[in-house]
Amino acid sequence: MLQNGDLVIIQTCNKALLKDPGKGYQEWLLCVFTGSVGINRWRFLIGALKDLDCSLRKLNSRLFVLRGKPEDVFPKLFNEWNVTKLTYEYDTEPYSLNRDEKVTSLAREHEVEVIYKISHTLYNIERIIEENGGKPPLTYKCLQAIVQKLGPPKKPISAPHLENMKDVKTPWSEKSEEKYGIPTLEELGLESTSLGEELFPGGEQEALRRLDEHMKKTAWVCSFEKPKTPPNSLSPSTTVLSPYVTFGCLSARTFWWRLTEVYRGRKHSDPPVSLHGQLLWREFFYTGSVGINNFNKMEGNPVCTQVDWDTNPEYLAAWREARTGFPFIDAIMTQLRQEGWIHHLARHAVACFLTRGDLWISWEEGQKVFEKLLLDGDWALNAGNWQWLSASAFFHQFFRVYSPIAFGKKTDKTGDYIKKYLPVLKKFPPDYIYEPWKAPRSVQQAAGCIVGKDYPHPIVLHEQVSKKNIQRMKEAYAKRSSDCNESPIKEQGVKRKALSVSEMLQKKIRKE
Ligand SMILES: Cc1cc2nc3c(=O)[nH]c(=O)nc-3n(C[C@H](O)[C@H](O)[C@H](O)COP(=O)(O)OP(=O)(O)OC[C@H]3O[C@@H](n4cnc5c(N)ncnc54)[C@H](O)[C@@H]3O)c2cc1C
């Protein structure tokens, strides 16, 4: 049990609302950092913080939000508040490892005990790597075999009760509100007038409500197969729990065990396509992100195929701003910008289009755009999935290219999804909604939308560029296998002694 004066930090923008670190606590602090975070994600985070503060008030506590650089702020607080203990959730992102190492060493200088817990993932990622002989599994099957050996993930611990907080008093005044209150969008310098409806409000209460709602649909949960869920339904065909898991509003372990309860005694789908399977995909990419150097980059990343991507700011801007002239792609990018969430297969479609499919632009550029616009933006998952979709790592069937026309048609023949997000095309008949440039002038006039004037011409000829790009990809793969003798991928196969979490932390920081 923590004492008065202990400091519990809920740290980073991503894992803001962690439950696991302690059974009781006095104050919760949050360190957020600005950067490549879009306004929708800020709104989500602020909502989540308000919800957390509300829950803490019920426990006679409060959330304290600190402003400033962690390494400047903490030493001051250690003295001012007589801090004796500091706890945080272990976060494997290099930025966070670096920050936590700095704060930990400052805390030690101030004789503050530091405790961290591993709870953002189902398993201790280091254990998975250790079980695999000291290297990250590069296939899902391999990961599955390892976690089978490890057994089911730990059960989540329950939330603190008022009894745990009996002797706790949290001083709070009007001044504290000014100094430690939850920031507003305005304070962060963000213009909120452009924001649309808040479809996915942040916070644990909403996360649990959403989880309950889904878990009640037992037949849906038991028959869930990800590839069969459509990317372009008018309301989401998957759970949209990702922003809540990313921000720590919902523990991956709670999600896992709730699914286990639903599955019990019933016939159900299995990994990789089931919902348990989705959580294991998360684990897979987290493991890669810890065990593979430069995971969010092509250069210096030993598993990533080196591709001679083009630099083309015009194409990149057209993709980002939903001006490619391919309605399916532009509708997805519009949904992403407006709502902050898009279906997994929609992410496939736009990621393939940007990279190996059509525009031949580096996956790192797409990664940046997603990081900014996704509510669920997650360093490890974003980097891992972008490598997959660009066939740079993990997935190697580069000759399988998504068509920006035929793919969407499979699940939405009439183009209702396109009409929702691109109202300029709403009067186009189904025959032309995916390819408005093919519509006769009279049809365009009747639809009130002239291609080239009211909606752009397609930016590329898909049939031609995709063929050329497959060839370029083939060359990159050929080069990769000819370089294989010196390839660091081979080195990765060499067993190394598994490192402890703190050794890994030190190692990562040294590499920064
Ligand atoms: C290019 C690209 C970038 C992506 N970037 C992110 C990202 O930044 N953050 C993120 O959370 N997901 C990312 N994903 C993975 C995936 O698309 C989302 O996790 C999923 O669509 C979220 O919707 P959901 O909660 O309804 O998923 P569900 O299908 O309901 O799955 C349940 C949970 O499993 C996890 N999950 C599902 N699919 C994946 C996957 N492929 N990889 C890892 N975890 C998964 C998520 O935590 C999700 O909430 C990306 C996928 C692609 C193709």
TrEMBL record:
Q: Which PROSITE patterns match?
A: PHR_CRY_ALPHA_BETA
Site: Electron transfer via tryptophanyl radical. Where? Answer: 309, 363, 386
**Cofactor binding, per record:** Binds 1 FAD per subunit.
GO BP terms: namely:
circadian regulation of gene expression; entrainment of circadian clock by photoperiod
Q: Where is the Photolyase/cryptochrome alpha/beta domain?
A: 1-122
Question: Which Gene Ontology cellular component terms are annotated?
Answer: cytoplasm; nucleus
List the SUPFAM superfamilies. Cryptochrome/photolyase FAD-binding domain (SSF48173), Cryptochrome/photolyase, N-terminal domain (SSF52425)
Q: Origin, by domain of life?
A: Eukaryota
Molecular function per GO: deoxyribodipyrimidine photo-lyase activity; DNA binding; FAD binding
Which residues of this UniProt protein bind FAD?
238-242, 278-285, 376-378
State the needed cofactors, names only: FAD
Please give the name of this protein.
Cryptochrome-1
The record lists the organism as: Crenichthys baileyi (White River springfish)
**What gene is this protein translated from?**
CRY1_2
